[in-house]
Structure formats: structure tokens, C-alpha cells
Amino acid sequence: SVWAAFQEHLRHLGLQDFPCGLGSWNKSRCDARRSPRGGQLGAAGQEEDVLLGEESPEVLVELLRDQHGPWALPPACSPQDQHLREMAVLTPELSHGSSIFQVLRSLRITGKGVEEVDKGLLQLQQLEELILSANQISRITSAHLPRTLKVLELCCNAVADLQDLCAQPPPELQHLGLGYNQLCGPLQDKYLTVDFWPNLVSLDLSFNNFTDLLGLVSQLSSLPKLRVLVLQGNPLALIPTYRGFLVDSLPKLSILDDIHIGPDERHQFHGLARQPELARSEARVVVSVGEIKGVPDPRACWQLEAGSEAPVITYSYCVTYEF
Prior knowledge:
- This is LRC43 protein.
- The structure is a single chain.
- By secondary structure, the chain is of the alpha/beta class.
- The chain has 8 helices and 8 strands.
- The chain has an 8-stranded mixed sheet with strand order 1-2-3-4-5-6-7-8, covered by helices on one side.
């Protein structure tokens, strides 16, 4: 599950081990924070820490930032991971218990074989960005997502149905990434409307199996804040008028398939939305066979001498393509 992968990730970060967390390297400083008299230590207190063999927060943070040091994070870790470790130095009490869950705003769990998005995520009450790309998620329930989410990235999974995700989706979501999944239209088109995503600005549906351009556009046109759309890799993108029809049908769109829509292009395709017959769900495919191996060469019959009594053998080949 996502929560199990997150807990394992926290263990790898070592938030309770030197130079993070609570220990002999910062004992007096942490005791002072917990003392009834409270207050932060002044210059004298910091000097006393050094005399006791402890390290200042600045020194501990430098140890974490040293890319060649023994406490450096692996290159694959995110800036959020580094931020958590530095926070565990500056405010080490947050590294114990569930305190850290209250400050985490971004969570990235990619390529970990995650299959389930469980309700443990609800403990992250301030989470705004959730990236779960390159896992094995086939079903995601909105009841297990924090309501504070603004970014949800599910690229390269096995999502084939949006019904559970749209039961009660995060109301403030601005980006939804569903590229490289198994979504098919028109059954899933109905979940891509303002009724479910009133604040959606960016939508990635690339490399799925959407085929009905007219039906999909009619649903997407209800999203009032949509500015970025990615549909490349779907069968509907093979339609000759695909880009022009989308540009004219969604006048508020700024970027389509990672290409900016300029005024000239907008003017070029003006009026195309009123000609739906041009957006036919058809495609013309030209296949050229460069070389075939493992069969007799039909050119051998050309080498027969004139007047030869040898029989002429004709070869016929059938090549079948499945789409």
C-alpha cells in the first residue's frame, strides 16, 4: 500500500538518527525547549552546547548538505526528502510520533510496486501534492485522499476506471495526471466534467485508449479553468483535424500536447469546431514492407533463360496487420 511504502521511505531517511532527531548531539538544546522556563538559547547557551561536545543546528545541517559526506541522500531522493531531514535537525521533536504528518505537503512514491491507495494517507492533513507514478495501481478511492490535494499524479499505472476516484474527489485539485493508463472512452468521458473537477487547470490523459473526440471534447468543455491538456498517444489523436478541432473547441486552452497555442494557430483553426463532420473517428495508415526474411525470393523466376522449358513458379504472400 501507499502508506506502507511511505513508512518504509521514512525509515530510509533516518529522521531519528544522527545528525537528525533527538540525541546526545543536541540534548541540552532540546531539554531547554522542553524546560518550564522555555525560550530559545542565546549566544551563551550555544557556547555551552559546544563545551558539552554538542553540535549547533547549523553544523548538523551542513553535514546533511555535504553531497560527499556519509549522511548525503541518494541522488534519486527529492527536495522534499532533504527538507524533511533538515526540519528534523532544526525542530527534532517533529521527527517523533505523528508530528511530521502535520507538516508534510508533498509525497512522492514512484516505482515501488504500490497496488493500493489506502486510508493511511488521511493522516497527512496538509498534503497538497501526491505523486504515485510508475506503480501498479488499478483502483483509487477518493475517500482515501486528503481533501487538501492540489496535485495528483498517477502516470504509468493500470487505472481503467475513474468511478471510485470521482465519488468524492478533492475539491481543490488543479492537476490530474492519468497518462499511460488503461482508460477507454466513452465510458470514462463522463467523469471528466466540472461536476467532479471544478478547479482543474491541467489534465494529462496521454497514451490511453480514448477514441471519441467529439464526445470527449463535449465533456472537457465544461471545465472552466482548464488551460493545459495532453491527449497525445490516444487513437483519437490520429484524426487529421484532431489538433485544430481541439484548439477551436476549447478557446481557453493555452497548451495542447506540450505545445503552446498562439494567436496565429487559434485564427487558423477558427470555425473548425462548427464542422464536427471533419472530426471523423477514422485514420489512414500507410505500411511499407522493407524486407521479408525466411521465404523464397520471388525474383528467382526472373532469371529463367528465354525458351526454357522449366516450369514458372509463382509465389503469393499475404501480410496481415492487427490493430
